[in-house]
Amino acid sequence: MNSGSHTSILYLLLSSALTWCLRGGGVEGASPIVVNTWPFVNATQRAWDTLQAGRDPMDALVEGCSVCEREQCDGSVGYGGSPDTIGDTTLDAMVMDGDTMDVGSVGYLRGVRDAIAVARSVLDHSTETLLAGDGAYSFAVQMGFKPESTETAASHHMYEEWKNNNCQPNYYRNVHGLDGCGPWTPQLEAENEEKEKEGKREDKKGEERDEKKEGKREGKKRLSERYNADINYDNHDTIGMAVIGGDGRVVAGTTTNGASHKVHGRVGDSPIAGAGAYADSSVGAAVATGDGDVMMRFLPTYQAVESMRRGMTPEQACNDAITRIAAYYPSFVGAILCLDKEGNYAGAGHGWTFTFSVVSDLTGGVPKVYSVPPLS
């Protein structure tokens, strides 16, 4: 565990008086304010200190999230974590300005460690929204970012351990070689049906799929098995942060290294506006964490902000966004953090207890950590 994680855990142990458990209630806040997913309080504090130094909310957002990139928060943010199926660590990040609705984001960035700062450069120095892969790397170098490996000895060790465990878990489905390290090749549906008859189906979600075939359907809605049961806090948490400045400007952003052992080439929800994060200064912001491959199909942060626009409280908007996903993916794991333009906030999680951090004048300028039990 890195020093940043130790600091966050120590903070939690020493500040239990500041830790609340929300059971269905949103919290009244104020602006300026910083909120972010998970108890990454060093990031929260850095963003707040940046605001207090007179810098703008976008500076605060990037400074705060960059702390997590450097500290490799929980191994799921920044360099040196979450190797993919060929051992690469790749980064996704985005920033969104709620005044202009401008977005800058990067996906599948490798070879530069400052993902959220590169995303901000996309916003500031191009008319594009999303750059990915080699192009994102080339742009970062053009903008003066230092080329530096996103892999480390620790990430290489994680990759070798995964291979020694027959490449389990992984994110493939309906393929030959699912229980090993490939080559992974498509299984035809006819083969699947034959294997079901013989009880030899290779698809690890076959039993769940069979249950769903028995008629768990309402109208045109059918429960989906396209989620990953191995998603959890230890291998799949993003820092999503929203900031409101003293002038009412709302910004939001995310940064992550994605899911451990993801399929090579995967880009998650974090760099997608409306999925990983969304901001509109006339309404508020929302940020997400969890199984991004599922969550991006619903644009939950966009949904939450639009729900607040229509009059929902942050609590209602978060719950609604999560419930929409759970209707199709009852076993998915994820969470949403919602913040309205007045500084009121709430979180909602599904499949795990969700914690988030808040700092404002009402907290005395010291981050406070909240815990939300999963929605039933």
From TrEMBL:
One MF annotation (Gene Ontology) recorded for this entry: peptidase activity
Record GO cellular component, one term: cytoplasm
Annotated region (Disordered), positions in chain: 183-221
Positions marked as site (Cleavage): D237, T238
GO biological process: proteolysis
Pfam families: Asparaginase_2
Keyword Hydrolase: yes
Sections of the chain in a coiled coil: none
Sites where the protein binds substrate: R266, V267, G268, D269, T289, G290, D291, G292
KW Hydrolase (keyword) present: yes
Catalytic residues, chain numbering: T238
Protein's name in the database: Uncharacterized protein
